[in-house]
Write a structure and sequence with these properties.
29% of the residues lie in helices and 24% in strands. With 514 residues, it is α/β, with parallel strands linked by helices.
Amino acid sequence: MDTTHPTPGNLFAALRAAFPTDLSSCAVETDSGLSYSWQDLDQASAMLANLLESLDLPAGARIAVQVEKSVEALVLYLATLRAGLVYLPLNTAYQTAEMAYFIQDAEPSVVVCSASNFGWISKLAFLSGTAYVFTLNDDRTGTLLDRAAQLSATHAVVPRQPDDLAAIIYTSGTTGRSKGAMLSHGNLLSNALVLKDYWDWQADDVLLHALPIFHVHGLFVAIHGALINGSKMVWCARFDPKVVLQHLPQATVLMGVPTFYVRLLAEPLLTTAVVRNMRLFISGSAPMLIETFVQWQQRTGHTILERYGMSETAMLTSNPCRAEDGSRLGGTVGRPLPGVQLRVQDDDGHTLPVGEIGGIQVKGPNVFQGYWHMPDKTAQEFTPDGFFKTGDVGRVDAQGCVTIVGRSKDLIISGGYNVYPAEIEGYINALPGVAESAVVGVPDADFGEVGVAVVVPKPGAVLHSDAILVQLKSQLANFKIPKRCHVVADLPRNAMGKVQKNLLRAQYQNMPVA
């Protein structure tokens, strides 16, 4: 079969069709000096796909992968798509109890892990009925590659329909057990094509990839963006600001989380000369402080493009890329992407007018198929007319720009009043000496729930909890004022830079409030 033309519905075939004509040109260059051509990606994914097919796996088999970032791990993802199977990426930070849950829930036919974890992961996998466990390391070694090395470097792409399952992404599980979001070939391809146009990908673009690849941001948004445009990637094994700055002159596009930009701003070597070839800086996965947004403009001359997405939907909204489409507004995540319908509703299902805060609901070809093995939960999260309840709280302005206020689970209802933590955090972050903050709700006998502020000072700054609360009282209604404030060295974050408010709630819920 001619793999240069898409097999109907298969995401890999669409990505493969976008490879440049010159397959000998560089597709991925690593920060360790390795170079992979487009032909390497094609042939290596063919060999791994042939290996997977040789195992005689059942239709729709899940391939669970917990390995360190490497180009070979990327190739395994492409091979899984190519073979018509379902890719299941798992955070490298997950430990025994978490891995046991994912393996039992997803029932993968194949598990791929780092050799250093083979002992305990293989035990979990075999006890759960997994047939095969392979190893894959970030130094191009492992039993997976050893087995695939004996197989053909050509492979006919397995036909798939747009609604066929391509990947399962487990949510973080901060409000209960993790849910497996089922994303189809059509979900992922539609989003990749929309972003290619909306973010104005150019023929000579080069993506600097410094994100992990077990998450929607690094695996789908970044990698699909480069591949569907036939663009080279400069591949960093992990985010190191000095390494990123070293490679920025070679790149035109960088996708990151706000923490990336904060840490880059702390580096003296960040200059306009270093970013001279850059076209686009994108940020997502967590809210960005206005201070960071403004400092980046002043320091580099570039305006960061903020966007909004989630595991269940990939990207939903984006600030404009092209100047003719408008300005990028700090603190907002832009307008709904083409094909995405977005509305804000109250708890009674009424659509709210412009500017009012409520639950964000979305509908479009990028919205997932449902939660793995959770039909009741899936039905609960969709409205009768097919909109997905994101769980995010926000508002839409008169120009259609979306501002995220917080997560519905973060909403604090204190004495019958709704308190949105993001609003309070905005005021705290604007205070002198404050680097960042998080406000969480904890149980209270009188009010039902009260706010607790956790504040991180800037280097060298000395903050006093009582003084912070006094300053807030001059700016906000009394019911919004946190009842307690704690000054700490840093906030707990997950791998994507999101503050783990569930950990803060657990830490402070039993402490007495004033």
